[in-house]
Give the backbone structure.
Amino acid sequence: MATQTKRRKTSARKPARAAKRRAITPEDMLRFTLVGSPQISPDGESIVFVHKQVGKKNEYVTNLWMVDVSGGEPRQFTSGGKDSHPRWSHDGSRIAFISAREKTNPQVYTIDANGGEAVALTDFPEGSIESFKWSGNGKWLAVEFRAQDAQWTEQAKKERKDSGASTPPRVLDHYWYRLDGDGYFNAQRYALYLVDSKTGKHRQVYAKDALGYFPYDFSPDSKKIVIATNRDQRALLKPWNSDLYILTIASGNVSKLGNLPKGPKTAVCWSPDGQSIAYGGRISEDSEYSVENLEVFVCNARGGNARSLTANEDYCLMAITLTDTSDAAFDANIQWSHDSKRIFMKLGWHGESHVASVPAKGGKIAFHTSGTTDQDVGNLCVDGSRIALTGATATSLGEIYVGAVGAKSIRTKQLTNFNGPLLSKVQTAGISSHWVKSTDGAKVQVWIMKPPDFKASRKYP
């Protein structure tokens, strides 16, 4: 007997419709994860960085995190809640960082690169730490520290409260006494200290900068420090009186580097071969904040004779991309290649920020990254093959990247995705670049951000 098979009707399944993204809300900002200060290990295998989120008490919580460049999940490395500015020792065995675990008394801490308990290295009195750098031999840390005005320490405030004394007036005899994000510092200035990396003992080695802000860098043999400093008591009005001084660590002697042009000088950086010093500057009676470009200069580490490497091109070391989700940093960012043949820099251009470089002997600027992105430069590993970066766009928050440094380009790879889950659920405004002609014929770049669910047929306020 024949049998008959009844075939069931089938129909092609329609793909699931993606859930509509919701409008972003002010509360979403509390869910953002912000990253910064990426530092790649000397061997190029790991990147330590600052991880920042809003805590339960509406305060920023910052810790150090670590991620392997080969991939894998990033992991929390410290838990102080106020940790920043991580820097590897040159042998890769330790990481030093600034921690304000005691709010008014931040210190430099160190931690084994394999993890463990962080230990306070320094024991500075109440004040603030601006930055620090390791010496190449690992023996020293150069630290910028500024002591709190004696009348305004926590102890002095407590004594006034206990005794019923009134708050004293601030007696100011200089126009440089406070700064946005820094508050009142009165007549106090940052000075440079040398800290023994094993014992934590420190000694002051330079305190003659009129404003207390002075870029510095160790020589590769760790015997000297170059300092870009302005000693003029009217330094704020005469920023062109900036000079380079060489501090000899063993003797403490400080000598001026001759044959340098007048003009501001910043972001000093000693070449790995010890022969040259690079800095950001210009030849003019003007400040770093000028309508003129801040250029890359190179001078002999012994005799000066500076020359600009970028004067013939229209790029400025201070042309940065400002965002609402990272700290504004206007300082020039320059560093040498491991063979001292090129100088890498961060350059802003038309709303983007990229890694570029210029030959140390002069030549054309080469851009190594591309695309509508804001690349923030961390550091190069010892052999120069990899670089630590953060990357963001106008519609995405910053994440940690590693760049493989080639002869002509840097191939970037994203290592973290802290904000991906949130951004996949919310609408972000698209952005487009346009050029318009001004009344005098000059072309001006403008940006357009359209409202959510934009319809060209509608009129918008």
